[in-house]
Amino acid sequence: MSYSTIRSSNRWRLLLALALSAAAIWSANSDWAVYAIAQYGEPKYPADFKHFDYVNPDAPRDGTLVLANPNRLTSFDKFNPFTLRGNPAPGLGLMFESLTTGSADEVASAYCLLADDIDVAKDGLSATFHINPKARFSNGDPVTAADVKFSFDTLKSPQALPQFAVYFGQIARAVVLDRLTIRFDFKVATREMPLLAGGIPVFSHKWGMRPDGTRIPFDQLAFEKPIASGDYLIDRYDNGRTISYKRNPDYWGASLPVRVGTHNFAHIDYKLYADAVAQLEAFKAGEYDVLVEHTAQSWVRRDIGKRFDSGELIKREFPHHNGAGMQGFFINLRRPLFRDVRVREALDLAFDFEWLNRQLFYNQYKRTDSFFVNTDLQARGKPSPGELAILEPLRKELDPAVFGDMPQQPDTDPPGSLRANLIKARELLAQVGWTYRDGALRNAKGQPFVFELLGDTGGGASMEPVAAAFGRNLQKLGITMNFRTADFALIQKRIDAFDFDLTTVRLPDVQVPGTEQLSRFGSKYADEPGSDNLAGVKLPAVDAILRKVLGAQTREQLVDATHALDRVLMNGYYVVPHWYSAVHRIAYRSSLAYPAKLPLYFAADEWVLSTWWQKTPGLNLASPR
Where would I find the Solute-binding protein family domain in this sequence (predicted)? Predict the structure, then answer.
């Protein structure tokens, strides 16, 4: 169930996921050039592979896919997905490509896309990419090394989202060697660097160029159509509410193995609805084709009707192996009220997941108890010797609890109870000086414990019963929680400015932690507006562990470092964790089909866009039943 603001409100961040969670291998003795790179071992697919296993290479490439809001945004005012100001149109990721792309059945690999050759230096301090001479932008211009450098320099500049400066911060420079060859020099020789370089989105230096040769500042680009190399173009749009893409008839890369069987629709249309209720009713009325359902109650009780009964609309759950990410009530430590860890733990104790799962979620969820839940990166039990080797030098800076068993989330199933949890919470609050008197929980100055939970109107109707239940439990402690909703765009602005007490957010999952963890938990970014360090974590010990995560040279080192990070974060109670599911719930029109083999690691929306197709009568390409 996802009532949350997905922190990657800019859709491009999701397209970076593979690049930000993978790293390259290199020879200890010599430079080499390859068609693909993998984090550990070898890429799954050989050099002569024809297509990925999870696509249908014979799928018809026609028809129109109509979709609704992929997030909480109900309107858009720009075609630039890389800047902080404004709301980007949905689907813009269809227009942009990078030097490499990942596969969805490997946790960390990258295959040539715009590039046709990758050369990683033996010392790991640089990677050179040769660009495919056939690569073209939508205006017909060839993709050049100068364009790649322009894209990199622009994204690292203050005109772009601050996350890019974080993600690419360890890439020192891009050097054009010739028209089709570019080298990236790295500040550190981590195994992630070549993949980060390969994942940089590329666009033409002519995007934003006026006829007189002057340039519109990058952060002021609005409805200037992107000049990029992807296989779709903007066809039409209307009032920031609808947008239609069409396949570029001159797309350069249709025969590439990484593109065979993908992006099978001739047109992709988006219709943006004002709220979740209108969106669901529009789907049931046949106004669009696919509904990715994030709400358990809707899946069970509302995604029903005559079109489902007749078979025109189909409901199906698709298992995945994704890490679940972290969704929960993020607590803002910039507020003095929440700086003591005992206060934050008390809030966690007041959250009754078991009751919510029974009463609202139809027992469809599991409680999130890790920042890396549903993966082997989740810490369990007591620290292993490998974890202790990382944690022991930091012992003086860390809570002693870090060296014990991983904290368990409060449980209200017998023999546990909400009463016992609230008694413990009251004791913790009393230790900090919060006591109940005059009808409220008050500090030594007599000030009541009052805070605001921030939520958006798009998810507000669904979130309200969760917030209400949480608020009732807090009220038993004498705490007043005010639940405030607003339009998603306004909420996002407040979150970017860290103007909240608690807010509901989901950090997207990663299969292999990397540079994105710096933005989420690094001290440097705690005060950087727009960063993902929502809680405001500023601990030298966390920074030290993050360096271990980024510098891991083996899978074992990465697992130990991530376990250590997980222990410190969970013991810090920076989030009241929510829940997760290991399936995607998708309702769709029966005229659509999908490949028989599912990928292992995939986001539902991206999977539909990239591998589904419109059935054509007579071809017998129906989805498996």
Answer: 113-521
Residues 223 and 313 in one domain: no
Closest alpha carbon to 401 in 576, 577, 575, 570: 570
Sign of CA dihedral 91, 583, 326, 3: positive
Q: What is the pLDDT of residues 286-323, one digit of tens each?
A: 999 999 998 888 899 999 999 999 999 999 999 998 88
Q: Within this chain, do residues 560 and 422 fall inside the same structural domain, yes or no?
A: yes
Contacts with 360 (C-beta within 8 Å, 6 or more apart), sequence order? 296, 297, 465, 466
Give the strand pairing for 450-456 and 502-507.
Answer: parallel
Give the residue numbers spanning the domain of 309: 273-321+582-615
Q: Is 437:474 a contact under the CB 8 Å cutoff?
A: no
Mean pLDDT of the region 6-29: 37
User: Residues 307, 340: one domain?
Assistant: no
Q: Which run of H or of E encompasses 280? A: helix 276-284
> Do residues 79 and 69 make contact, with C-beta atoms less than 8 angstroms apart?
no
Residue type, 120: V
Q: Is the dihedral of CA 291, 604, 226, 162 positive or negative?
A: positive
User: Which of 272, 292, 309 is at the close of a domain?
Assistant: 272
CA distance linking residue 350 with residue 362, whole number of Å: 21
Considering the domain architecture, whether residues 311 and 334 belong to the same structural domain is answered as no
